[in-house]
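Input.
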Amino acid sequence: MKTKDELPECPVATTVSIIGSKWKLLIIRNLLARPWRFNELKKDLEGISQKVLTDSLRAMEDDGIITRTVYPEVPPRVEYALSELGESMRPILDAMQIWGEEYKKSS
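Output.
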C-alpha cells in the first residue's frame, strides 16, 4: 500500500491514482461479480495485453484492492478477488454504471 506521503493531497486524485486506468476499472468490474483466474480475465478484457494485465493486478494487489490466492494444485491455480477494501468501492462503480446508462439514454 502507498504511504500517506505518496498519495496526492486531493481525495479524488487519490482515488484516480489507485483505480484510474481503463483496465483497472474493468478488472474491478469483473471482480465485483466473483473471483477470476488470470486467463479468464485476459479473455474477457478484449484488447488487454498480458503485460498490462499482470502489471495492473500487481499494482492493485500492492494497493490492497485485490487478493491473489494460489491453490496448491498441479498445475497451480491462482484466483484474484476483491479484498474488503476493494469491495468498499462497489458503490462507486454502481454509481458509474448508473451514470453511464443515463448518459447513453440521453445521447
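Helices lie at 11-19, 22-31, 38-44, 50-62, 84-87, 90-106.
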